[in-house]
Amino acid sequence: MADSKNNKVAKIKKYRKPLNLNIGMVIFAVIFIYVCICISMYFKDNHIKPYEVREGSLSSNNLYTGIILREENIVTATSAGYVNYYAREGQRVAVGNLVYTVDETGRLSDYINSEELGENALSDADLYQLKGEIVDFVHEFSPNNFSSAYDFKYSAKGTVLKLANTSLMENISDLNGSEFGGSVDLAYSPYTGIVMYWLDGYEDLTADAVTTKMLNNKNYEKTQLIGNELVSQGDPVYKICDKEEWSIVIAVDEARATELEKKENGVVKVRFMRNQKESWANVTILHNGDDIFAQLTFTNSMITFVDERFLEIELLLHEETGLKIPVSSIVEREFFLIPEEFITQSGDTGSYGVLREAVLENGTRTTEYVEVEIYSLVDGEYYVDADALRSSDHLYMPDSTETYTVSKRATLIGVYNMNKGYADFRQIEILYKNEEYAIVRSNTAYGLNVYDLIVQDASSVKVDQFIYR
After folding, report:
1. Are 234 and 76 contacting, i.e. CB atoms less than 8 angstroms apart?
2. Average pLDDT of each block of 10 consecutive residues along the chain (469 residues)?
């Protein structure tokens, strides 16, 4: 039996393998650290976004809803009976043209609804009129103004009745003399003008009586005059506009009124939102109590809107065309002003420079040629980079002893061009701008060209900073 005192417990220690570094692990670690640093710098860096200059136009958002004023003469029925219309709405009639008839017995209405007239084929013009009314209703309909559906219903019904009465109109004289025994009164137009078959109570409204409450047309009511309806003597049967001149009155603020008053010849360009057509209007500013209105008077297009009292328009006050750039690209920079007589141009490179007085180490005064970059020429003075010269520098006129002391400064509005890989300032002439974009003049000596790349955010770069894209 073995002696227990001589028995020893063996301790087993774990063998630690030494770290075996090789060149591959070192390279991998360096690359990993470099990638992490690049990613961190990318997210911390202020990214420079380019913007490609394109030609474009810019118009301010000047949408208004105005009330239409026309010379509208209401014509009343000469006798009682059932009225039937023969002139279409929006049609120009002359004095003595047949507009409607009044059937005292109602037999004419029965005759119109009978099959004795046969089929009445619609012409291309008739179909165009019906399609136009339907398309206009579909585009302008809003569930919030459902009552307009009833206006369309009555208008379409009246249009169909007028078109269907064409055949009857051709033989109305014979029918009245034989079959109806003189019970049908023929009503002829007393004026030359455009026929309208609706009433709204604003027929006698004048511009100086317009109020802001009227322009809020939520409670506006329009009555359609429908054929085959019974009327009494003296009831309105239609109205006629005998003048092509018409106007739209809109509510404006004081700033807009002042701007309109300054328009050349008192004329402004207007776009009609209903059909996107444009026209010129004469402007008159009205002060009705505490409210300010602008009356826009036209001499054409009245027939297009004979079925409207309210119309949405856009004032095209600043519709400029040129180079379109973001407002964020625009920056202001300061320059020295140097008379053009003191600027010389190198014959070899074509670069510009000045002859500046310099003092050598031994105290001798001499001149040195300093190359400068020109940014603009205004009234005989060059705008020169302020970093190229120092204030109080003395410049010499070439081939002369006359000197000029650098001191005068001025600023230019411009953008940073990045075509050459660095932030190169270019002067711009702003024609018009809104909150997002500006239109600048094209083809200027020191400005931009189409397809130039500029810095979208001017605050993200410094002058002459190199730009990597």
Report:
1. yes
2. 54 63 79 85 71 81 89 90 82 88 72 55 66 73 68 65 56 54 77 90 92 86 82 91 92 90 87 87 91 93 88 83 90 92 82 88 84 90 89 88 90 91 89 86 87 89 76
